[in-house]
Amino acid sequence: MKVCIILNGEIKNYDKTKEIILREKYDYIIGADGGCNHLYKMNIIPKYIIGDLDSIDKDLVYYYKNRNVLFKTYPSHKDETDSEICIYLAKELEAKRIDFYGALGGRIDHTLANIGLMHYVREMNIEPRMITSEEEITTIKNEEIILHGKRGDTISIIPIMTDANNITLKNLEYPLNNAKMGYLSSLGISNVMLDDECSIKIEDGYALIIRNYKVNL
């Protein structure tokens, strides 16, 4: 089950973002309040709209209600952000993967909090990704992943929370074998894929994996 959540951050290229969303064929699309302004510009109808409706264009509330979109509204004074409430709904829908759009850019506090939500989602045993028209961000924790992309894509591995140990990178321009990266180290910045997939293994640690594919879209 794949769920897409559209947030109220920055979306630079609506055409490319819409192309990605349609290609992924999500089971459910959820608009988080002002994220629905982005959906409208891409001519995409969500299944659900979540939030206190303080950021969505007021005319769009009527527009989406007339298209049978399900609204779940909450007061503006609450402990959870709209993003978190969307995640709760995605979990109820039995999502195995949650992709976030519009999660970056704009206010830095929102951007950092949204990146932090990826850890929260992973702790639910749900795969998180953040996607823009230029890049894809995921996380890795004590595991090995095969990352799919295209030759020449830029890959950055950034340890978060603590140092990462026993890192092995294969099929990248700068390979590593059982190496260590310090917390927020720049060592893993701007590696390059040598083929259409690469292997990233971290035996002990947690890191953000950022694939920049701007040149390939």
Automatic annotation (TrEMBL):
Lineage runs: Bacteria, Bacillati, Bacillota, Clostridia, Peptostreptococcales
Species, as recorded = Terrisporobacter othiniensis
Name of this protein = Thiamine diphosphokinase
NCBIfam families in the record: thi_PPkinase
The record's section on SMART domains has: TPK_B1_binding
Q: What is its EC number?
A: 2.7.6.2
Keyword Transcription recorded: no
| The entry's keywords | ATP-binding, Kinase, Nucleotide-binding, Transferase
Q: Which BP terms from GO are recorded?
A: thiamine diphosphate biosynthetic process; thiamine metabolic process
Top-level taxon? Bacteria
Recorded GO molecular functions are: ATP binding; kinase activity; thiamine binding; thiamine diphosphokinase activity
Record domain Thiamin pyrophosphokinase thiamin-binding: where: 149-208
The question of whether Coiled coil is a record keyword is answered with: no
